[in-house]
Amino acid sequence: MIARMHRCAVALALALSCSGIVGAATEGAPELPVFSPEGANTCLACHNTPAVTGIFRSVHSAAADARSPFGQYQCESCHGPQGQHLPLHGDAIISFGPNAKTPVGIQNDMCLDCHAATKGDWLSSSHEAGDLGCADCHVLHAGRDSMLTVTEQPDRCYACHLQQRGQMFKPYVHPVRQGKMNCSACHDPHGSVAEFELTSNNLNETCYSCHAEKRGPFVFEHPPAAEDCSLCHEVHGSNHPAMLTKRPPLLCQQCHSQSGHPSVSYTSGGLPGGSPSPFVLAGSCMNCHGSVHGSNHPSGITLMR
Description:
The chain is an all-alpha fold and 305 residues long. It has 14 helices and two strands, in the order H-H-H-H-H-H-H-H-H-H-H-H-E-H-H-E. The protein is 27% helix and 1% strand.
C-alpha cells in the first residue's frame, strides 16, 4: 500500500510537471497532495454524475477485493492522491481518455500497476507503439466494459480499423455481425509475439482453433493450405464464397498451369465451342478435386478424394 501511494504521488508530480501546472517553488520544495481522508465521498461531493457513478456497477468498486481500486484508495487509486486538488491545483488530477491532459504513458502505467499480467505483451504491441491509451478503448466508469462484450467490441475496434470494418460487411464473412465471435477471438489487442497480434503463433494455427478439420497432417498435402490460409482466403471478408480471394478456376490457375491437364483455359471463351461446361461452372475445380486442404486417401495424390 505504502509503495503504491508513493507511485501515485510520483505519477501525479510527473503529470503536473508535463502539463506545466507545477511552477517554480517560491519557498522550499512544493508539497505533494495527500490522500483524501474520506476517499470517494470527497470526490462525489462534486463528481456525482452517471458518467462517474457507473463505476459502482463494475468490478473496480469491489471494496472487499484488495486488488480492486476501491479495496485500496478508492478513486485515488487511479487518479492519484488528490485530497485538496481543487483549491491547490485546479484540474491537476491524473485523468484518462483520448482527450485527457495526463500523458498516455502515465495513464497506462496506472492501469498496468494492477493489470500486470498484460504488461509484457503490451510493451511490445503495435497499440502501445501507436501511443494508444488503455482508456482509448476501455470504458472505466461503466458497469459493463464494451470491449469485454462480444456484440459490442467490434464497433470499438472499427473506430480505428476502418478497412476491416468495410470487409466485415461483405457477403461472405466470419460471424462477427451475428455476435458469435469478436475481434479478440483472433487478435490479442494487448500484444502478441505473432504477426498482426494473433492469439496463436501464426495465422494457420489461429484458424485451426476453429477449423480443426483443416489442420492435418495429411498424407497428401495441398502446399498453399499448409503454408498460409490467406493465400486462398480473405480473413476479414470477401465477395466470393468461402471467403476466397478469387473464384475458382481463376484462383486455382494462379498456381496451376495447363501442364499435365487438359490444355484449355478454363473460361467460357476458352472452352471448345465457346460455351461453358457445367462441370466447370458449378464447383469449378472442386467438382473433381474436392479435398483441397489435403487428403489421407491412398489414391488422393490429386486431392480428388
